[in-house]
Amino acid sequence: MPDMPSSTRSQNKQQLLNRLRKIEGQVRGIYRMVDSDTYCVDVLNQVAACRAALSRVGVLLLETHIQGCVVQAIKDEDEAVAVDELMEVIRRFI
Amino acid sequence: MPDMPSSTRSQNKQQLLNRLRKIEGQVRGIYRMVDSDTYCVDVLNQVAACRAALSRVGVLLLETHIQGCVVQAIKDEDEAVAVDELMEVIRRFI
Amino acid sequence: MPDMPSSTRSQNKQQLLNRLRKIEGQVRGIYRMVDSDTYCVDVLNQVAACRAALSRVGVLLLETHIQGCVVQAIKDEDEAVAVDELMEVIRRFI
Amino acid sequence: MPDMPSSTRSQNKQQLLNRLRKIEGQVRGIYRMVDSDTYCVDVLNQVAACRAALSRVGVLLLETHIQGCVVQAIKDEDEAVAVDELMEVIRRFI
Predict the structure, then answer these.
(1) pLDDT, tens digit, for every residue of D12-40?
(2) How many angstroms separate the Cα of B90 from the Cα of each of B61, B63, B87, C57, C86?
(3) Does any CB of chain A come closer than 8 Å to the CB of residue B33?
(4) Closest Cα partner for D30 from D48, D5, D18?
(5) Hey, is the C-beta of C62 within 8 angstroms of any chain B C-beta?
(6) Disruptive mutation site among B38, B39, B44 for chain A (greatest number of A CBs within 10 Å)
(7) Which of A5, C43, D71, D92 gives C48 a disulfide partner, CB atoms 3.0 to 4.6 angstroms apart?
(8) Chains touching C (3+ CB pairs < 8 Å)
(9) Which chain B residues contact residue C91 at CB under 8 A?
């Protein structure tokens, strides 16, 4: 991420790590719910919440990627690969 | 899940637990990727894969729920709440 | 939909037809926006709104289907096919 | 879309218009299916297909937007608004 101020970069990184730690805990919680035969609807609600949290991590990563790598590639007149790659990732998420 | 044969029930449960264990490992892998500044596109691909795995867990849970709780509630002529609750969960997933 | 009161059935049907008429209009609106070179972001917002409206039609149809066909099949002790078919449809939507 | 070759631009535009015309036909088809009480599962499959077609239109529009407007804004050193707007649109789609 060469053109982002390094303070923004490390802020985003810390936020991503915190969220991933929390998601890991959510997955472990779902494991325990299934293991102790919690009512399916309550488990399903937790799975939906966890999936939404993971989507938000994806969006934050995408934002970091666009502001960093993609912007830099375009400024370096080297956008063809960066834009193709970006579209590939977006397609996978939509 | 009163009306499923208990063998199917415990098979589904074991499959769910195995998948959740694997997803927990995927989330930890993504954490390490972010922590070691892996290229964003590679991280994003892992996030998309993990989210898809979580969706599949949701679908398997939903299937277990429908075949067990919902079918039983309908047979007991007690479907109103079960169907409302099911639609609520489906709405959250779509 | 054999076991729904016919008033509910025809109410849902009329609601579905109204929504589909509106969605058809939205699609034609998007066509005109593209044709007249409207700013991409405005077109994209319309596409997202139209897709959300279509999802809501899907959820309403699913609800009608579960309350009618699926409930009836289960009461007739003929649930195997109905539940498989339902899971297939849900999988396609998630 | 200032920096795309105008041939690509008009090709994409024609492709978008063709797809939107087809989606309009699909929506009308779904209307007729509901109106003539076609089996819910068949209607739901058409709704899923139509929603997927609309998502592909969204992705094509997004691609056109990124390759045109976003790349140009970045080259003009005027990326802040363009990147924010892009993230807003992506968030709406994910």
Answers:
(1) 899 999 999 999 999 999 999 999 999 99
(2) 12, 11, 5, 13, 12
(3) no
(4) D48
(5) yes
(6) B44
(7) D92
(8) B, D
(9) 59
Structure-token pair, residue A77:
């007149």
Split at pLDDT 50, 70, 90, the class of C57 is very high
Q: Which chains touch A (3 or more CB pairs under 8 A)?
A: B, D
Question: CB of D51 within 8 Å of any CB in chain A?
Answer: no
Looking at domain C6-93, which of 3.20.20.20, 1.10.10.60, 3.40.640.10, 1.20.58.1000 is its CATH number?
A: 1.20.58.1000
Nearest-angstrom CA–CA distance, A83 and B16: 38
Query: ipTM score of the complex?
Result: 0.89
Q: Helix D40-65 crosses helix A79-93 at what angle (to 10 degrees)? A: 160
State whether residue D34 sits within 8 Å of chain C by CB. yes
**Burial classification of residue D92, based on how many CB atoms lie within 10 Å of its CB (0-12 exposed, 13-18 middle, 19 or more buried):** middle
Q: Percentage of chain D with pLDDT > 90?
A: 71
Tokens 């899923």 map to which residue?
Answer: D48
Buried/exposed code over D39-69 (b: 16+ C-beta within 10 A; e: otherwise):
ebbebbebbbebbebbbebbbbbbbbbbbbb
Place of tokens 């299916």: D33
Residues in chain A: 94
- Out of A17, A54, A61, name the one closest to residue B31 (CB): A17
H helices present in chain D, as ranges: 6-35, 40-65, 71-75, 79-93
